[in-house]
Amino acid sequence: MDTVNLPNDDAILATGGPPAGEKRPDAASGSEAAIVVEPVAPVSDATAGETVPASAIPAEEIDRLTGDIVAALKTVYDPEIPSDVYELGLIYAIDIEDDRTVKIDMTLTSPGCPVAGEMPGWVQNAVNSVPGVSQTKVNLVFDPPWHHGRMSDEARLALNMF
Question: How far apart are CA 58 and CA 61, in angstroms?
Fold first, then answer.
């Protein structure tokens, strides 16, 4: 399992991480937060004390899938905000399983979002279009609630929120 730190200090737990060397700004400190990619060998899950088995997907394929999934997520825009769901910090977790099922935890800018019933489907369709993904399951969560501090610098620039 790879751990990827996002600008909102949440970790994406996945069998794949973004391409090696990619950096995302840390929203809390304003500094660049390096992406941490754990080895593909079994690792200990520090929070649960369990061993996580190695992925059956080669590391190079995990890197490709992760980059392509992030690129697909960047094609999904909130119709009321001129920024994509990834840069807005609406994606809380991505998990790529050995059978290439992608599980995504995401939120909305508010529970009353007018596209609440549609946006998870947009995310699912975008990720399903990635070659090598067998299926996508999107889980809509509201804990923790979204706030503007979750946005990347790119989103803040697009929204003139500096």
Answer: 5
CA distances from 109 to 41, 58, 73, 153 (A): 37, 35, 16, 17
Q: In which domain, by residue range, is 30 found?
A: 2-158
Q: In the chain, how many domains are there?
A: 1
List Cβ neighbours of 76 (8 Å cut-off, separation of 6 or more).
84, 85, 86, 119, 122, 123, 126
pLDDT, mean of residues 15-42? 36
119-151: pLDDT as tens digits: 999 999 999 999 999 999 999 999 999 998 999
Domain of 81, CATH number, reads 3.30.300.130
Give the predicted TM-score (pTM) of the model. Answer: 0.69
